[in-house]
Design goal:
The two termini are about 20 Å apart. Helix 2 (about 50-70) packs across helix 3 (about 90-105). Strands 1-4-5-3-2 form a five-stranded mixed sheet, sandwiched between helices. Helix 2 links the parallel strand 4 (about 40-45) and strand 5 (about 75-85). With about 110 residues, it is an alpha/beta fold. The chain has three helices and five strands. About 40% of the residues lie in helices and about 25% in strands.
């Protein structure tokens, strides 16, 4: 599967207000069924996370974890991932484990 990125503010706001969410120590995930027949995702990192280097690393780690789980999705969804302060300091494998747990809880991948 090849997903697209969310760029419009209205898409992010739609997921914040109408989407289902799950939170963990390094990641908050918002998800909603996609209106189009494609999977889309967006990643947000605030300045609280740290310098630009740390924010970019957080995004890279989240993107890598999502790319590993994407083939297991059961349908088309829109995702917004919100990085937390710890995200830039942990390994991608840790984020992958948390993301997988969140996806199972949200029902977007099979057990």
């Amino acid at each position: 599967m090849n997903s697209k990125t969310l760029k419009e503010n209205k898409d992010f706001r739609r997921l914040y207000y109408r989407g289902k969410s799950q939170a963990s120590s390094c990641l908050v995930t918002y998800v909603q069924k996609s209106r189009e027949n494609e999977t889309r995702y967006g990643i947000t990192t605030s300045k609280r996370i740290g310098s630009a280097v740390e924010r970019n690393r957080s995004k890279r780690v989240i993107r890598a974890a999502f790319s590993q789980l994407e083939p297991r999705l059961n349908g088309f969804y829109d995702f917004v991932f919100v990085a937390r302060t710890r995200t830039s300091k942990v390994k991608m494998q840790d984020v992958l484990v948390q993301m997988e747990e969140q996806f199972k809880a949200l029902g977007v991948i099979e057990e």
